[in-house]
Every structure is written in C-alpha cells, then in structure tokens.
Amino acid sequence: xxxxxxxxxxxxxxxxxxxxxxxxxxxxxxxxxxxxxxxxxxxxxxxxxxxxxxxxxxxxxxxxxxxxxxxxxxxxxxxxxxxxxxxxxxxxxxxxxxxxxxxxxxxxxxxxxxxxxxxxxxxxxxxxxxxxxxxxxxxxxxxxxxxxxxxxxxxxxxxxxxxxxxxxxxxxxxxxxxxxxxxxxxxxxxxxxxxxxxxxxxxxxxxxxxxxxxxxxxxxxxxxxxxxxxxxxxxxxxxxxxxxxxxxxxxxxxxxxxxxxxxxxxxxxxxxxxxxxxxxxxxxxxxxxxxxxxxxxxxxxxxxxxxxxxxxxxxxxxxxxxxxxxxxxxxxxxxxxxxxxxxxxxxxxxxxxxxxxxxxxxxxxx
Length: 366
Ligand code: F6R
Ligand code: MG
Ligand code: MG
What we know:
The structure is a single chain. The protein is α+β, with helices and mostly antiparallel strands and about 375 residues long. It is about 25% helix and about 25% strand. It has helices spanning about 25-35, 65-85, 140-145, 155, 190-195, 225, 250-255, 315-330, 350-360; strands spanning about 1-10, 45-50, 50-60, 110-115, 125-130, 165-170, 180-185, 200-210, 215-220, 235-240, 260-265, 270-275, 275, 290-300, 305, 310. The strands form three sheets. Strands 5, 6, 7, 8, 9, 10, 13, 14, 15 and 16 form a ten-stranded mixed β-sheet that branches. The chain has a four-stranded antiparallel β-sheet with strand order 2-3-1-4, with helices on one face. Strands 11-12 form a two-stranded antiparallel ribbon. A hairpin with an 8-residue loop joins strand 6 and strand 7. Helix 1 runs antiparallel to helix 2 (about 65-85) and helix 3 runs antiparallel to helix 5. About 45% of the residues are buried. Bound molecules: fructose -6-phosphate and magnesium ion (2 copies). One magnesium ion binds near residues 11, 18 and 232.
C-alpha cells in the first residue's frame, strides 16, 4: 500500500506577538480536520511550534492531492476565523490568497509530502522550524546525508555507501520552480557550493541512490515571493524517513547540536543560532531565537503512533544552554555586520528609503 504523509503548516495568528497560537485556535483547526477528514485521511495530528500550526496527515491519495490540500486550507481558514474573533496578532497572516485554487503551494502555507510503499517498520521524523526560512535545513541535511564524520552509516552500510541524490531549488526564481539534481559522493563539492547560500538554494528532497526511495521532503516556499513584498519568515517544515536504507534517527538529528547561525528572529531580519526545542515550545528572546522541533513517529497502514519528542532529552538542555550563549554573543553587536541580514533579506523596506534620502546628501570632495 502506498502511504502519503502530508504536512501543511501556517501562521494564522498568535498571542502576545509572534509567540504561540491560542488554545481555541488549535481546537478550531483540530475540530475542522476531525469533522471533515472522513474518507480522506487515515490519520492526522495537529502540532504547533512557536506561532505556527502544522496539520500532519496520512492518506492514500498521493502528493499534491486537491482534496487533501483543500481540507488543510479550510481548516487553517477556520482557525484564522477563530484568531480574528479573539483579536490575535497577525490573524490569518500566512493565508495570502482569497480563493483555493487546487493546491496550497503558492498560497502561503508551507507544504512537505512523502509518498512511499511502507516498509514493515516505518519510522519517520517531522521537523518544524519557526522564525527562520527554508534554507535552515541545508546544513543538517548535508551533514546527515553526505558526511561520514556525522553519519557513520555512510561507511558502514553498503546501501548508504552508494550515496544520495539531492534535489536543490533556486528559490529566488519566481517564474517557475528552478531545480537541480546532484548526487553524492561525486557531486559533493557542487552541493556544498550551492547549500552554503541558504537564502537562495534550498534542499527540496533527498533520495537513495541505491533504491531510488525518497527520504526527505522540505517545504521550500518563500512568502515574499508569493506576497510580492517582504512578509513574515517562511518557517519551514521537513519530513525525513529514517533507518535501514536511510540515515538513522541519531545521524539525522546529530547536526542540530551545532546551533548554526541562521536567518530570522526579530522582525525576520537577523542572524541567530538555531535552537532545537521541545514540542509546543514558544518564542521569547529577541523574537527568537529561531527554533526547530522534531517529532518522531512510526506509521503502519497509514496509522500514526503517538509522537516521541526527539529534542526532549537532557543532552539537548546542554545544547540549548550553549545556543543561548551564542544568541547573547551575537545580540551584543546589535545591528552591526553579520548580526543583521543583508539588505535583500530584510523584512522591512524603511531602511531603503532612509538610505535613499541620505544618498542625496552625500557630497563629492574635490
Ligand atoms: C515568523 C514571524 C516573523 C514576523 C516578523 C515581522 O513567525 O513571526 O518573521 O513575521 O518578525 O513581524 P512584525 O512586523 O509583525 O513584527
Ligand atoms: Mg509569525
Ligand atoms: Mg512563525
């Protein structure tokens, strides 16, 4: 049986700023999916990370299915209505289009989907990040799927040793999806050359060279491309099938100990370290730091187990403390140099007007 996992997520309003959705909004989304999923879904779960609500669904209808996407869109619209009634900040903010047009891609919500023949045991991980953009997964995925220093399976397992195919999207191209396929280990340096620029080149999917099976799907949407102006951070989601012919769970999550500096946090315009957090974590210091949660599941005949909270372990308390220290170090330099994003990634355009006004006041000294 082919199982599809679809996760669709959006920021539809939050309490106290961009911090966390209200309980009533979460209930509204859950109730809508529950009441309208009959004959569509095998199973579903509602999660939140920071101010974003994710609907994780399993079904047998394949990827980009109209009815599945419509169900999620309508559920998020129902949640946005509730958010408006409660006066939540940014109510409905990621629902950028008025009418559903067959697929939520390009309408604001982030989407990641995997469709596969279930293995007898089918573990997978669901990552959700807030206050950052889709390139946030570039480094962890690069290390997990191509570096034996992180992933011993690449030298221990014959299947993993044949490498993986990365599909990488140029998210600056707004005309159409512009993608390239590159294979490890041969194309390793080309992959690195692209992924070093996470604002432009984003891992979209990764598949096994040995079997062709897909392990990874990342939501690549950039809200400012859809809205035509700078808007909130994209806050991507990512699905990863793990174990056997794919890297193990421990190999996939190991790179998150680095807490790399990523785009996001305050006004979506800074560089801050990525903090691996527990499920249902909120946002705090400097509208950040950017966070990532990870729920582990097994799926069997489309039915989901309960989630295990992968970053809820004493080890990650140490990582979080170190990450907080990195965040403080960066914040000590305020707006200066790498603390703030380059001009073309700032969420606000006021600075452009300010510099334009100053430009006219410059004098050429003879
Ligand atoms: C993402 C997020 C941010 C905000 C950004 C600007 O979840 O909340 O990217 O969109 O901080 O928000 P305003 O202008 O409302 O402060
Ligand atoms: Mg937000
Ligand atoms: Mg968010």
